[in-house]
Amino acid sequence: MAKVVSVQVLSYHDQAFINFRGFAFDSGAHGFRWVDIKCFRLSMPDTDDMTLLRSLIGQEQFRDDYAGGGVDAEGIRHGPYWVDRIGVDDYVAVTNSTAVDALASWARLHGSVPDALNETLELEVFAPLRQATSSYQLKELARTSLHDWGGVHTEFHEFVSIDRMTHRVLLIVAADD
Fold this sequence. Notes:
Elements: E1 10-19, E2 33-42, H1 49-58, E3 77-78, E4 81-82, E5 91-94, H2 96-107, H3 115-131, E6 134-138, E7 156-163, E8 168-176
Antiparallel strand pairs: 1-2, 2-8, 3-4, 5-6, 6-7, 7-8
Helix pairs in contact: 2-3
């Protein structure tokens, strides 16, 4: 009998966190916003996008409430939603420019963005999105998908960037406190 070997297509690599409070805004109106970027290594670049999204949802790092609790291996929350209410069909394919435009617009929500923050966003978020093979946006889910305190974020934006050339998948979450 042949032994079946399960190969993990994604593995967590590292994380970057951009806190708007760390930048000098002219008006002081940073809106308590931040961007969290989780990077995963793609071991099998030919894996189809839906399988990658399914694997991402199954990752321990996906179980993050983004409200100070951090990643919980046994967690039941992802951002404002119950983890078990999120499926691959909840991710909508978007153009790379649509993803960049949405996040740039969100960053300017309370006025102009300091040059240093623009440079950081360009390096960590916008450039990787522009070079991605494909990008997906988590659509706004039904109110029944919100967990018990899921309305804590005024804004919650999530994008997944798949880059087959660099063998990276980025989970990009932009929100406020």
